[in-house]
Amino acid sequence: MATITMNQRFDPSSEKSIYDLTQGIQVDSQIAAQEVAVQKEWARSLAKAGILSVEEADQICQNLEKAFVQIQAGTFDWSIEDEDIHMNLESFLTKHLGELGKRLHIGRSRNDLIATTLRLFTRDELTEVIQALYEFALVIAERAEKDLNCILPGFTHLQAGQPLRHGHVLASHGWSLVRDLKRLQRAREHAMEEMPLGAAALTGTTLNIDLTALAKALGFTSPNWNSYNAVGNRDFIVEALDALASIAIHCSRLAEDCIIWSSTAFAIVKLPYEWSTGSSIMPNKRNPDVAELVRAKSAHIVSAATNAHNLLKGLPSSYVSDLHEIKSVFLRSLKETKEILKFFPELISRLEPNRERMQELLSQGNILATEIANHLTGNGETFRDAYDQTAMLVKCAKELKTSVEDLPKATWQKIAPRLDSKFMQDLSFEAAVERRDLQGGTSLATAKAGIKQLKQNLNQELAWQKKGTRA
């Protein structure tokens, strides 16, 4: 009967194709930097515990570095029979160090090893996404500043409502990304709260390892408090995926706005030539492909978060092989998010407002009607009566094919006698926008203050990241 070794967990006479199902090398190769870091710290901890000599730990660390260099260069000799990065590194060490290479795995399991590596990977990847998201939000803020003097109809239900500044609309998307930065930062912190290493397979290690020192060396707040939970916990990845899904939703909504704004029907912005595409048959068209692809990729990212929840919901506690699949889901979500944050900012920064078209749209939809209703209320009418009177003025304006602010004096005096001539004479889109001068409003001063605060919040979130915690 054949002897079963660590590299032969399946019957050697069985179909080799089973390794194609169980191996995760393509995914694991992307977490090599974090894996090597964890392995090196484990070797140093074994030396501190007297299980390895300092010289032996140094030899292991040096060879782990050699393996990492080869992985980066694409020259590492991966073996699917070794299934994952953990066993491939052990085989590499054994090949180069003999029996010493086999000693590194003492006191631990692949279960606590991968859980630890994934936490470091999550921290590092979210750090990169936080930086990219910060830069994108800053692009939005700066674009918003440039467009503050562009007044256009604001929409609810895609119907013209009241006038506001285009920069104010753009800045609203920046505030969504501020919330996303906070979510990312929380997910990043939570990933590094407890170190799984030391949990071994599920019950904890028997070695006299200084887990507190090891956790500190790897950047964790503390060792884990429950070994059984530690090896099966992937909540930190789910939290990261949920944060990425929120980014995707907000980017998709901005993309949808760009698509609508640049459509023939609206035409309130002009697409940059370099960041749009032509038609294969209609030479008159420019298509918002970048925005459309952002919208599509966002669907993938949202689906990835749902995928992770579904992968976990039916699992027993502790460790199971299903957890391998979450790694690939996370990697796909990261890839799509990074692509959005690489290309979308360029489109936003180069959008050109179409002021003439904005002015045309201002004259449609009687968007100063609310100003009249508010004025009547200020002159003693109840709001409901003011609303009804203004609605009648709107009806008259439509019948006369004019705007409510341009109605003949005799008409509005008859319907709404509490309107005064000076108010109607001064009624304008600019005046309506400037009247909203409380914090968060659309006046030039408050809109500028809002964007200034947006930038301050963005800088604060970036500072939290560099500090490493919001506490």
Briefly summarize what is shown.
The chain has helices at residues 18-22, 25-28, 32-48, 54-73, 85-97, 99-103, 110-146, 166-191, 211-218, 227-232, 235-261, 289-313, 324-349, 355-362, 369-378, 383-399, 409-415, 421-426, 429-435, 444-467; strands at 151-156, 159-165, 194-195, 222-223, 269-270, 277-278, 286-287, 352-353.
Annotate the secondary structure layout.
Blueprint: H1 18-22, H2 25-28, H3 32-48, H4 54-73, H5 85-97, H6 99-103, H7 110-146, E1 151-156, E2 159-165, H8 166-191, E3 194-195, H9 211-218, E4 222-223, H10 227-232, H11 235-261, E5 269-270, E6 277-278, E7 286-287, H12 289-313, H13 324-349, E8 352-353, H14 355-362, H15 369-378, H16 383-399, H17 409-415, H18 421-426, H19 429-435, H20 444-467
Parallel strand pairs: 3-4
Antiparallel strand pairs: 1-2, 5-8, 6-7
Helix pairs in contact: 3-4, 3-7, 3-9, 4-5, 7-8, 7-13, 7-20, 8-11, 8-20, 11-12, 11-13, 12-13, 15-16
